[in-house]
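Hey, can you fold this one?
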Amino acid sequence: MKKSKHKEITISEASDYFDEHDIFEFEDVKEVTGIEFKLQKKKYVGLDMELFRKIRSKAKKLHKSEDLLIKEWLLEKVR
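Sure. Predicted structure:
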């Protein structure tokens, strides 16, 4: 396994460092422009924990996240 050349630092140490330095001091850092994204509103609903455990188990067997499995099931019902 290849070792990283960079020393691991804490968030606090990084914060202290960038209080004194500018990110653009590094020659390989470039400003990112033209980023576009679309926010999508979501509604969260409560589930009984026993039902959620069953969904989690089923999702794990299918190698999917619980969110994805629930979304797929709901889409099937509303089509």
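Helices lie at 11-20, 49-61, 66-78. Let me know if you want another pass with a different chain boundary.
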